[in-house]
Amino acid sequence: MEDDDQQKIADLVQELVHRLITQNPQTPNLDPNSPAFHEPLHYASRILTSRLKPSVFPDATAIAESLKRRLATQGKSSDALAFADLYTKFASKTGPGSVNNKWALVYLLKIVSDDRKSAINGLDSSVFLPNLGLGDGFFRGGEAKKKDLNNGVLLVSQDPENLHDEAFRMYAVLVKKENEVNEEVLVKDVLYACQGIDGKYVKFNSAIDGYAVQDSVKVPRATRVMVRMLSELGWLFRKVKTFITESMDRFPAEEVGTVGQAFCAALQDELSDYYKLLAVLDAQAMNPIPLVSESASSNNYLTLRRLSVWFAEPMVKMRLMAILVDNCKVLRGGAMAGAIHLHAQHGDSLVHDFMMNLLRCVCSPLFEMVRSWVLEGELEDTFGEFFVVGQPVKVDLLWREGYKLHPAMLPSFISPSLAQRILRTGKSINFLRVCCDDHGWADAASEAAAASGTTTRRGGLGYGETDALEHLVTEAAKRIDKHLLDVLYKRYKFKEHCLAIKRYLLLGQGDFVQYLMDIVGPKLSEPANNISSFELAGFLEAAIRASNAQYDDRDMLDRLRVKMMPHGSGDRGWDVFSLEYEARVPLDTVFTESVLSKYLRVFNFLWKLKRVEHALIGIWKTMKPNCITSNSFVKLQTSVKLQLLSALRRCQVLWNEMNHFVTNFQYYIMFEVLEVSWSNFSKEMEAAKDLDDLLAAHEKYLNAIVGKSLLGEQSQTIRESLFVLFELILRFRSHADRLYEGIYELQIRSKESGREKNKSEEPGSWISEGRKGLTQRAGEFLQSMSKDMDSIAKEYTSSLDGFLSLLPLQQSVDLKFLFFRLDFTEFYSRLHSKG
């Protein structure tokens, strides 16, 4: 600045000080040249030239608004308007002669006004310069020392040596009187508490379950609260440390496991960083805390407030670790990883980064188990922590029951669908290795790892790489499942075995079934106890050699065997005879005992149907020549001849009805059920992507056959009605045989009726009584047979009507079409309406 400006400022300050002092009633006429005037002037100049700044934002407009608002609230509206007008002019003036630091001048005027108001309110000191503390002592000399301390606050009076140092010393004396323990000691005790160690004054209080200053120690309440807040970190540390110690003492117990051990290791790593921080803070705590009046030789000292700033971040982490410890006490494995993962969904970047680092360590054993299972088929789960559980089973049950998902151990960051694919991929490897004795899966696993961009070595996957994990599982599942199906189709000829079962157990090989029925039929009519399974096996081999079945694969034919079901004393061979197909590893995974039992049920049903068809064919073979030769009975009476013709006609009509039913029902079974189901199964077999799809397709195929063949539980009523019809047809076969045997005997005896005597005749025979006796016996026989036929016809009509009435009630659409086929002329419907 220019010299003139400097002089102008000095003059203005001198005038301002002079006016303020002369307003004091005790010094109305103070000489400006006297030493009593120069001392306050010199002190005011020191304050104005110092670098001290007020703790307010330098905003002149805000200060002016505050002053104007104060005047208005005091009822001085005119003064407020005048001040606003003056400030507007003052603020608008710029250029030479104007004030640059306008806000400082306005703030000075505000402080002066506040000091003047304080003096009016009766303060002990008459202070007219802000922060000068010019009171009565300046004018009364020695009395100032007596009034320096007022209510614990030292008023800084005019003193050549600047008494503010003495004020700070007095403040230190007051602090010592209120505090029995200085802050340095409390800081060190807090650092001890944060390590779980009792200090000299800060100890663990079991009553409040935390660290606190002892009640006998005299400290201000604010200090006590501050220590309690800071010592919370020690309480949290103690909980975490206790959990780690207890868990590691129990390891390798199953309750801890590898995931629990990794969790403890991650917590220990965080505590190591925590120890480093405490070491740094302990070094800073060795430096003394400077007084307010002293300039600290170093900023590396600790107070309780500084400690609260240092503890902000560790407190967040330690609280989070304590919460995790509480939540994971009773958890292990995947359940523990899932519980920790839930806390990672946080908006705070500090918490999120901390949880990500923690989870990478915690989940590393779990991801290693997934990698080993998906790429090697090895279940490295000593402590039962993995969400895939294995159990010892037979080889044929390895796929279905050998491995299961454990939902309680499935972490929340792995979806159920992904878990199912992980389970199936490992199962496929074990199935190939154990059941198929195949090792081609290793190449497929290596290709999958290369395609997904991961490595087959340990540590290739970790938390946060869920997309990479899903990609790896997808690639591995696609290649390994394809290899598994190729092994089943090509090496073990799964399709050919299914076709063989269809031909022989589902009676699809017509010439074989017909020949077997012809040669084994007479033997099966005998009591079951008299039939040898070895003899039936010979019949089976004969049927194979006599039909086109002889050209099938010999391995498949060797699996076809005769099975005699459990039977009682009254059972016939027809009731116990069945065929079975031997399923060997690995095909027994598909053709399990329950599946083969279903095939056995279907075979027994189809065998009954074939037996009924065979019986009707036998009736036709017996009926046709007898119908032709029946016209030769010319010597019989007309009434007997009419009875004979009526019986033959009744038999023919009933046979036609039964044949119509059996033919259409057999067509329905063989074509609309078996062939359609096989066609659908073949398509689904080609579209199958894994063994589960293949099993589902085969189960669907078999269930469709069982359901549509009236063998399901819901079809029990209609099935019983169908079996009644079968029994009636077999009874009809028996009666028809008796009828035609009688007719045949009558034909023979009628030729000999003209002879007077026949020595070979036995007593009681028809011919022995002559022509009259022959006619009488023939009439009685035909009448009896007619009654039996009428009875069978009546029962058959009633049973058939009941069967047809149940068909529309079935769920399968095909069964409803069966009703249309059986009653396409609506004959039975009209008959039912008339009845």
Automatic annotation (TrEMBL):
InterPro entries according to UniProt: GCP (IPR007259), GCP_C (IPR040457), GCP_C_sf (IPR042241), GCP_N (IPR041470)
Protein name (record): Gamma-tubulin complex component 3-like
Highest taxon, organism lineage: Eukaryota
Domain (Gamma tubulin complex component C-terminal): residue spans on this chain: 496-828
Major location (coarse): cytoplasm
Compartment annotation: Cytoplasm, Cytoskeleton
Location of the Gamma tubulin complex component protein N-terminal domain: 187-490
Gene3D superfamilies according to UniProt: Gamma-tubulin complex, C-terminal domain
Signal peptide: none
Family per similarity comment: Belongs to the TUBGCP family.
Keywords: Cytoplasm, Cytoskeleton, Microtubule
Provenance organism: Camelina sativa
Nuclease among keywords: no
Coiled-coil zones: none
